[in-house]
């Protein structure tokens, strides 16, 4: 992690907020820009240069696109060059070793793999910078002529390393002026605290159960295999939605309003609906910059299905440099195309419970493919989910693990639905005003105690 969690919570963040709020408004962007680079460079200083390179390339190409606004051919050439530079940069750092390893399977070809660490958050900020120049070319965004303001947008520390993907046109006005108030700050603190609780108190705890079963994938029972994937499903949801909540909360603290990235995906009644509610910023990015430019649904059903397949193949490989991610994306492409063709009509005739079960089954079925490092491991794990395991139906360890993690399972299942939020919203405003600060203090105490004491604190989406 870029900063240790406790160092971030109790030193970096308070210091940045203090300096930010005492700084005159016209100097807040430069202060924030420096704070962003310090945050990013804490763990890997060399990649600050890569970040500055990305900012500079996209900033100056944006100026050229604006210069050639009346000459579409020249503006398009600049845009193509800019996209190519971004994709080459992303491709080198993220996919070089995968390509080298794959090509080396061909006789008489040997390509040396490079021991280059993946820059944290490169998939997120590369997509952000590309969206800026594409929107500029389309006339959907205004030019940003101030380098510091543009750099502040790209390197914005609240969501820099694990999203959500923020588009320039959604925050452009906030880069010029951001209102500050006690209400906004307190709202940001509450939202950040909710995200922290999701990550530290739920994701970290339930994630340990997944690790137990993932490490023993070759000798799983039927019950154990499903407990493992259910645990991972909750872990990745609370890990990433928790980080998104923290990013949205941090943004509020410094005057930015980011769009929501999750909308209770596990209450969905189809996989199509699930992916409208999960990682919303990535889904809308691929829709607006890949699916619609390919033609969307304008050229008949066959072309639409091909476009869905392309988008989901890219979505899969975006998540990581492993062919398992591509197959994971292809699985969803096929499933979503099937829903488009006939499954949705069939599902509509079923009751809600059956539809929910279908979604839970379809989503959990391919988490082993997403999370394990090899096709062999994923296939072995998945076979146990269908009962093809010499270990049998269940074991004493499964019973022990179920009893140990039952409470966090219950909390996780309740928390991934809007039940608790709806109950809180029904409280009188006076009760909310009393309970909110108490909740924030309790969560901070519990989370800090966990972070100080525990060694298990992975952020799953950092690697993407």
Spell out the key features of this protein.
single chain, 464 residues, mainly alpha, 2 domains, 71% helix
Helix content: over 70%
Through-space gap between termini: 13 Å
What best-fitting shape do the alpha-carbon axes yield?
globular
Q: How would you classify the helix and strand content by structural class?
A: mainly alpha
Question: Count of helices?
Answer: 19
The assembly state of the depicted protein chains is single chain
Question: What order do the SSEs take from the amino end to the carboxyl end, as H and E?
Answer: HHHHHHHHHHHHHHHHHHH
Low-confidence runs (pLDDT<50, min 5 residues)?
A: none
Number of domains: 2
Report the portion of residues in β strands: under 5%
Mean pLDDT: 90
> Rg, please?
23 Å
Your description of this structure?
By secondary structure, the protein is mainly α. The protein has 2 domains: 5-177, no CATH class; 184-463, no CATH class. It is 71% helix and 0% strand. The protein contains 19 helices and no strands. The chain has helices at 5-22, 28-41, 47-67, 72-103, 122-138, 147-154, 168-176, 182-215, 222-253, 271-277, 280-291, 301-318, 323-347, 352-365, 367-371, 375-385, 396-415, 419-425, 429-453. α2 crosses α6, α8 runs antiparallel to α17 (396-415) and α12 (301-318) packs across α13 (323-347). The longest helix has 34 residues, at 182-215. The model has no long low-confidence stretch (mean pLDDT 90).
């Amino acid at each position: 992690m870029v900063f240790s969690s406790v160092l971030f919570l109790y030193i970096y963040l308070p210091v940045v907020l203090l300096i930010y709020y005492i700084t005159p408004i016209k100097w807040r962007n430069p202060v924030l820009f420096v704070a962003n680079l310090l945050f990013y460079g804490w763990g890997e200083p060399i990649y600050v240069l890569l970040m500055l390179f990305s900012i500079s390339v996209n900033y100056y190409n944006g100026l050229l696109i604006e210069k050639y606004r009346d000459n579409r051919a020249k503006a398009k050439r600049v845009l193509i060059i800019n996209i190519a530079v971004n994709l080459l940069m992303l491709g080198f750092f993220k996919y070089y070793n995968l390509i080298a390893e794959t090509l080396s399977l061909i006789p008489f070809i040997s390509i040396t793999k490079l021991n280059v660490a993946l820059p944290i958050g490169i998939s997120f900020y590369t997509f952000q910078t590309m969206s800026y120049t594409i929107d500029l070319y389309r006339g959907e965004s205004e030019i940003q002529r101030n380098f510091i303001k543009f750099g502040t947008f790209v390197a914005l520390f609240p969501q820099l390393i694990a999203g959500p993907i923020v588009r320039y046109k959604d925050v452009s006005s906030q880069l010029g002026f951001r209102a500050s108030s006690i209400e906004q700050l307190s709202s940001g603190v509450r939202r950040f605290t909710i995200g922290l609780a999701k990550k530290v108190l739920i994701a970290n705890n339930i994630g340990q159960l997944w690790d137990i079963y993932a490490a023993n994938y070759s000798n799983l029972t039927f019950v154990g295999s499903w407990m493992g994937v259910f645990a991972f499903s909750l872990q990745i949801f609370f890990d990433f939605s928790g980080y998104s909540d923290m990013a949205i909360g941090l943004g509020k603290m410094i005057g930015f309003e980011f769009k929501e990235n999750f909308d209770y995906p596990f209450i969905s009644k189809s996989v199509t609906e699930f992916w409208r509610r999960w990682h919303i910023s990535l889904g809308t990015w691929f829709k607006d910059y890949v699916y619609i430019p390919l033609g969307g649904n304008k050229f008949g059903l066959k072309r639409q299905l091909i476009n869905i397949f392309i988008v989901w193949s890219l979505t899969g490989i975006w998540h990581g440099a492993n062919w398992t991610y591509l197959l994971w994306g292809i699985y969803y492409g096929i499933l979503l195309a099937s829903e488009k063709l006939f499954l949705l009509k069939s599902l509509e005739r079923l009751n809600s419970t059956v539809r929910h079960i279908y979604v839970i089954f379809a989503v959990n079925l391919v988490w082993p493919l997403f999370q394990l490092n090899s096709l062999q491991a994923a296939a072995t794990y998945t076979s146990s989910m269908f009962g093809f395991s010499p270990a049998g139906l269940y074991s004493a360890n499964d019973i022990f693990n179920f009893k140990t993690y039952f409470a966090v399972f219950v909390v996780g299942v309740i928390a991934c639905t809007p039940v608790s939020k709806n109950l809180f919203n029904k409280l009188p405003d006076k009760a909310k005003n009393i309970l909110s600060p108490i909740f924030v203090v309790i969560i901070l105490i519990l989370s800090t105690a966990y972070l100080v004491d525990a060694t298990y604190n992975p952020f799953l989406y950092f690697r993407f």
